[in-house]
Write a structure and sequence with these properties.
Metal-dep_hydrolase_composite; alpha/beta; binds N-(iminomethyl)-L-glutamic acid; eight-stranded parallel sheet; binds fe (iii) ion; zinc; Imidazolonepropionase
Length: 407
């Protein structure tokens, strides 16, 4: 089994920037962390292992992007132009654009084309230290096309050095062939699509877009019932454009997270706290649709609801492939602190991701998945805009990404 001691590094093992070590070492054996701590305390048994010198760089857990729609075909720059001319996201959706236009492109794409286009969005995330990414379906909205999306998501996890968890989002929008028959479509989702895709092992969690232009509380609940019967964790796009009570409903189903949440009220926050749901905030979508309603940060803090930050990478509201940029936006737009945003892409994101056992925190016995940052202070991760800061990504103890420097 390969053994390595990574040394000459500054360590933020828990994702909590208030607890760090200035001169740390990490002993790795067979892809797992055997020991980590202050370098002078390195136990004698590791002293003769081969060494890797990180030259004073910072090490954090591999980042977790816990809410993405990064598998889709095409793009919606034309809609962006319409919005610049004054149309709102909701108006465009009601006129048959929006999600449904990406559905047309995704249905038409071959699996290979879908993989290639999606891989191009995954690569920049990996180059920024992301070692785990959640990927939703929801641009197929019929069994075969949803299957194609989820298969591509699985393949991305097999062919790239990143852990992928899939989320079935069949209840993302009403497909045109079901116009005026939303309940019939929900029945299709519940009775046919979700059972088939879950049986094929393609579904790790279930999401619903609960909104005026999405699905009602009652329809969302029908989907959650099926998920829970199959022991699949749920999550929800909730209170993004209006306050519909989705987060409280999701909490009743023990949701991993509720996401977006700009219009969340105190009752929703309290319900999330009671259920242990993570609040996933998506500053890219807030920014890109020029939302002005801020998510209720003070309430989330007061109730101590864990907060995660994610890209929401998607063609309509967040054409984003940088989690570091989301950290920056969460500080500037949402007034979150540096420790909050760092926890938001590590420990708290891993909870929302549904696997905090293996992701988001570094400790003995856990996978050696970490990011190496050429910065002097962790605050720089939220400070620089557009600067490549990640020098190396280590996954299972092996370097899977290294920035090549030429001078
Ligand atoms: O997270 N709100 C619903 N779903 C996506 C947007 C999808 C799209 O516009 O293509 C979101 O914002
Ligand atoms: Fe989303």
């Amino acid at each position: 089994m390969k053994q390595t001691v990574w040394h000459n590094l500054k360590l933020c093992a828990t994702g909590d920037a208030r607890h760090t070590l200035d001169d740390a070492a990490i002993a790795v054996e067979g892809g797992r962390i055997a020991w980590l701590g202050a370098a002078p305390n390195l136990p004698a048994q590791y002293a003769l292992w081969p060494r890797e010198d990180l030259r004073g760089a910072w090490v954090t857990p591999g980042l977790v992007d816990c809410h993405t729609h990064l598998v889709y075909a095409g793009q919606r720059a034309d809609e962006f132009a319409q919005r610049l001319a004054g149309a709102s996201y909701e108006e465009i959706a009601r006129q048959g654009g929006g999600i449904v236009s990406t559905v047309r492109a995704t249905r038409a794409a071959s699996e290979e084309a879908l993989f290639a286009q999606s891989a191009a969005r995954l690569e920049p995330l990996i180059a920024e230290g992301v070692t785990a990414v959640e990927i939703k379906s929801g641009y197929g909205l019929e069994l075969d096309a949803e299957r194609k999306m989820l298969r591509v998501a699985r393949q991305l996890g097999e062919r790239y050095p990143v852990t992928v968890r899939t989320t079935f989002l069949g209840a993302h929008a009403l497909p045109p062939e079901f116009a005026g028959r939303a309940d019939d479509y929900v029945e299709e989702v519940c009775d046919r699509m979700l059972p088939a895709l879950a049986d094929e092992g393609l579904v790790d969690a279930v999401d619903v877009f609960c909104e005026r232009i999405g699905f009602t509380l009652a329809q969302s609940e029908r989907v959650f019932e099926v998920a829970v019967r199959r022991n699949l964790p749920v999550k929800m796009h909730a209170e993004q454009l209006s306050n519909g009570g989705g987060a409280a409903l999701a909490a009743r189903y023990g949701a991993l997270s509720s996401d977006h949440l700009e219009f969340l009220d105190e009752a929703g926050v309290a319900a999330m706290k009671a259920a242990g749901s993570v609040a996933v905030l998506l500053p890219g979508a807030y920014y890109f649709i020029r939302e002005t309603q801020l998510p209720p940060l003070d309430l989330l803090r007061r109730y101590e609801v864990p907060i995660a930050i994610s890209t929401d990478s998607n063609p309509g509201t967040s054409p984003v492939t940088s989690l570091l940029l989301m950290m920056n936006m969460a500080t500037t737009l949402f007034r979150m602190t540096v420790p909050e945003v760092l926890l938001g892409v590590t420990r708290n994101a891993a909870r929302a991701f549904g696997d905090a056992e293996h992701h988001g925190t570094l400790a003995a016995g856990r996978p050696a998945d970490f990011a190496v940052w050429r910065v002097q202070s962790l605050a720089e991760l939220a400070y620089w805009i557009g600067r490549p800061l990640c020098e190396r990504v280590v996954r299972g103890g092996a370097t899977v990404f290294q920035r090549s420097l030429t001078a």
